[in-house]
Amino acid sequence: MMSEVGTIVLTHSQLAFGYQKILEKMFGVLEDTIFLSNEGLSFEELKNRLAEEIKKLNKAKIIIFVDIIYGSCAQAATELKKENENIKLVCGFNLPSLIKFFTYKDKKPLEELLKEVISSGKEGIKEI
Predict the structure, then answer these.
(1) Which pTM value belongs to this model?
(2) What percent of the chain is predicted at pLDDT more than 70?
(3) Which of 33, 37, 58, 92 is deepest in the core (most CB within 10 A)?
(4) Does a structural domain hold residue 73?
(5) How many structural domains are present in the chain?
(6) Residue 98 lies in a domain
(7) Which has the closest alpha carbon to 11: 58, 61, 69?
């Protein structure tokens, strides 16, 4: 089934690629998903690269996961989100939130799923 949702996981350094390895072991190749790093890119280069990847995905809706809410990745994504109402931005994700997202990506309405993604991310952090 072809998804109407494209996904970008954008992080500092090589973090995105660590998540990619884990998620692909669990789900196989993730269609319509791009993993990106800001490493070695100026802010403008990062924003331009992100815009190119969004265009390549060519989806009705784009979800961008970034690692830190006020970091350069989030700032670049926020600027692009202002220009495109079809972009949703989730800041501060973790593995439980990504597992929830990719498990239900094409099975639940997007707004409902994003609420569950954020909730599962919070639930995944506990002191034991």
Answers:
(1) 0.96
(2) 98
(3) 33
(4) yes
(5) 1
(6) no
(7) 69
* Cα distances (Å, whole numbers) of residue 126 to 40, 61, 66: 34, 32, 21
The stretches of 4-124 forming alpha helices (DSSP H) are 15-27, 43-57, 72-83, 95-104, 110-123
Which residue in 90, 79, 80 sits closest to 11, CA to CA?
Answer: 90
Structural domain span for residue 72: 5-93
Do 80 and 73 form a contact (C-beta atoms < 8 A)?
no
List beta partners, residue 65: 9, 90
* Residues 51-72: tens digit of each pLDDT: 999 999 999 999 999 999 999 9
Which residue reads 């220009």 in tokens? 83
